[in-house]
Amino acid sequence: MSTISDKELWACAAHVIKTHGTNAPRHVAERIGALALADDSDGVATWQAIAKRMAALTETEAPATRQ
To answer: What is the pTM of this model?
Structure first.
């Protein structure tokens, strides 16, 4: 993966959510797809890391309550 720090990944995730709202997951999927087609594995890994952080930011159910 590139040299993007964890803090920057969290900031990117928050920005994508703020900018794209409910379409944020689609935006990320499109980016990952385009980068995969371009054979950019570092780019794919970066966007997958952003997607993981977006999921954590938008999680509505507290982890302690899951079964």
So the answer is: 0.84
54 contacts 17 by C-beta, under 8 angstroms: yes
Q: Domains in the chain: how many in total?
A: 1
Say how far apart CA 2 and CA 5 lie, in whole Å.
9
The domain in which residue 45 lies consists of 6-57
Terminal-to-terminal C-alpha distance of the chain: 33
What pLDDT score was predicted for residue 63? 59
User: For the chain, where are the alpha helices, taking DSSP H only?
Assistant: 6-20, 24-37, 41-58
Angstrom distance (rounded) from CA 61 to CA 13: 19
